[in-house]
Amino acid sequence: MSGAGEFDLITRIRARAAAMAEARGDVELGIGDDAAVLRLPAEALLVVATDTLNAGVHFPVETVPADIGWKALAVNLSDLAAMGARPAWATLSLSLPQGDAAWVDAFLDGFLALADQHRVALVGGDTTRGPLSVCVTVHGFVEAERVLRRDAARVGDDVWVSGTLGDAAGALSQWRGGEGVETALRARLDRPTPRVALGRALGGLAHAAIDVSDGLLADLGHVCVASDVGAELEVDALPASEALREAFDAEARRALQATGGDDYELCFTALPAQRDAIVAAAREAGVDVHRIGRIVERRGVVALSGGQPWTSSRAGYTHFR
Ligand code: ADP
Ligand code: MG
So where does Mg(2+) 4 get bound (predicted)? Predict the structure, then answer.
């Protein structure tokens, strides 16, 4: 590696990760040995998720390193949230074009800010030279009866979503159009909020859950296929932020909400009898939830607007299409 060597970089990372590893009390060995040694709680299942961010594919190349650090962890914590798990540890594989210590420091500013919020200890990783790519693996715990699976939706369930939809896709759309990107939308693209507390609160209450990364229609479709059911979605009921309403007309906004990716909200299903409990759980978790449709027997996801079928020219984001 040119610039700082691999071991200089690892030393910096280790120094900054040490406090949380110490504070958690379940990291026997963190960064520095051949592998991490971790203490598992007695009464929980281990939940593991991994996600890679490649420059130019998952974030615009000019994204600042602190935001890349935040997002690399956020998308992984979002997967744990969608399982109803509480996060504990992370590993970080960095591929860097050069050994740029300032870049790594800035990256860690974002990564560790979010890690601290969720008491996640960085316990290991790998540092290599190559095109900019960040792969994070997270580990968390969930009680067996609180796992939120994709295949657990039932006919008659309500479909819910947290927060607002379409903001990140709105930012990308403005960015691609060469216009200025609205600050509030840009923040949702660069620093998504993983709904960890909501996922925890929904365990044992909701049936199925997924985090919205590819776009609501696509992700709800994944739930339906896994559960062998269908869904009807009320497009007019999809929650939108003020910033999105101001920046896009109704039709463009709907397309962004229904099919734009990178929201990292939770979409989940639950019995209608649980409506009050769900609203209370969400309030406790500090996030709004909206009822946006229902699970039906007929396969497929049907989007409705004013009672009529609604279609958009955009589809969920798929790699290797
Ligand atoms: P090895 O050759 O045994 O794989 P490395 O030199 O790759 O060891 O890593 C040394 C230590 O530093 C290990 O504990 C590893 O987990 C940790 N490490 C390496 N890169 C990172 C990184 N990007 N983030 C966190 N820990 C890292
Ligand atoms: Mg290694």
Answer: 34, 79
| pLDDT tens digits along 116-156 | 999 999 999 999 999 999 999 999 999 999 999 999 999 99
Amino acid letter for position 199: G
The mean per-residue pLDDT over the stretch 96-123 comes to 97
Cβ 127 under 6 angstroms from ligand 1: yes
Pocket test for ligand 1, best of 96, 127, 136 (most atoms within 8 A of CB): 127
Quick one: average pLDDT of 216-223? 98
The CB of 125 under 6 Å from ligand 1? The reply is yes
Going by CA atoms, what residue is nearest to atom 2 of ligand 1?
Answer: 34
Q: What is the pTM of this model?
A: 0.95
